């Protein structure tokens, strides 16, 4: 049976970025998912949360915890990503100076997500928002 | 080496997270880029940084780090302290710079 979890994120709210990944980490631990898989999933979800906080106006994380894998959908209302392949390039960033000063926005987010997931799909519309869908097998 | 031994040896300030002082240290990581730490640091490592905001403790918790050391006498934000307490991960401080602190920790761990 799949377990559904949902979290809201507000743009600019870095204090709540990490809530979803932290909660999902606890749930996966309780389900005795292997530690290595949990680590990868947590990195991917955290980066996605930070992306929403750094770039979008608002968004949400929805996770479906299944028996063999976890499916995560992170959707936001925001500026969208103009060039997805460029955004995937390590080091490329459109983050503001303030965000960078916090140590975020180094252009590693999406590549960290790619590295730690088994399936990743990004859909984006300029001026409307972005939906990230990824899956990790345990 | 335990976090408590590191604290004693280098007279580190313990800002919060005393519950985790008996954590065993497996290594260290030095970076001020949070995604770099997120992608690279490993469990039970000590993270040396100059970032003082609460996301530092969020990452330390998500990555199961042994402790965080703030360098150059930097003070953590109030919500960072709170997060350290909640997560039970020691938040430490030193007046040393990153280079010096990392060098000492490296020498200790390489020799143990």
Automatic annotation (TrEMBL), chain A:
Q: Which Gene3D superfamilies match?
A: Histidine kinase-like ATPase, C-terminal domain
InterPro entries documented for this protein? HATPase_C_sf, HATPase_dom
Kindly list the GO molecular function terms attached to this UniProt entry: kinase activity
Q: What residue stretches are annotated with the Histidine kinase/HSP90-like ATPase domain?
A: 18-135
Q: What keywords sit in the KW lines?
A: Kinase, Transferase
Residues in coiled coil: none
* Name used for this protein in its record: Anti-sigma regulatory factor (Ser/Thr protein kinase)
- From what organism does this protein derive? Mariniphaga anaerophila
From TrEMBL, chain B:
The superkingdom of the source organism is Bacteria
What name has this protein been given in UniProt?
Answer: DRTGG domain-containing protein
Q: Subunit structure of this entry?
A: Homohexamer.
Question: What is the source species?
Answer: Mariniphaga anaerophila
InterPro entries to which the protein is assigned, alphabetical: Ser_kin/Pase_Hpr-like_N_sf
């Amino acid at each position: 049976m799949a377990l559904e979890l949902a979290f809201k994120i507000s743009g600019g709210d870095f204090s709540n970025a990490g809530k979803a990944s932290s909660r999902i980490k606890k749930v996966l631990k309780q389900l005795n998912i292997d530690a290595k898989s949990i680590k990868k999933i947590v990195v991917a979800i955290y980066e996605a949360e930070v992306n929403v906080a750094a770039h979008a106006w608002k968004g949400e994380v929805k996770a479906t915890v299944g028996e063999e894998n976890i499916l995560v959908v992170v959707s936001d209302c925001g500026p969208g990503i103009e060039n997805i392949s460029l955004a995937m390039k390590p080091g490329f960033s459109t983050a503001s100076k303030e965000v960078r000063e916090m140590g975020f926005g180094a252009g590693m987010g999406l590549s960290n997500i790619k590295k730690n997931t088994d399936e990743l799909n990004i859909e984006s519309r300029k001026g409307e928002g972005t939906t990230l869908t990824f899956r990790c097998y345990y | 080496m335990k976090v408590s031994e590191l604290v004693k040896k280098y007279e580190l300030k313990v800002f919060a997270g005393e519950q985790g002082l008996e954590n065993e240290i497996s290594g260290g990581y030095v970076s001020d880029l949070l995604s770099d730490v997120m992608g690279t640091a490993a469990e039970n490592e000590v993270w040396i940084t100059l970032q003082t905001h609460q996301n530092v403790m969020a990452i330390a918790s998500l990555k199961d780090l042994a402790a965080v050391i703030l360098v150059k006498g930097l003070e953590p934000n109030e919500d960072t302290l709170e997060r350290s307490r909640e997560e039970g991960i020691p938040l430490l401080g030193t007046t040393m710079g990153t280079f010096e602190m990392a060098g000492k920790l490296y020498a200790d761990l390489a020799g143990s």
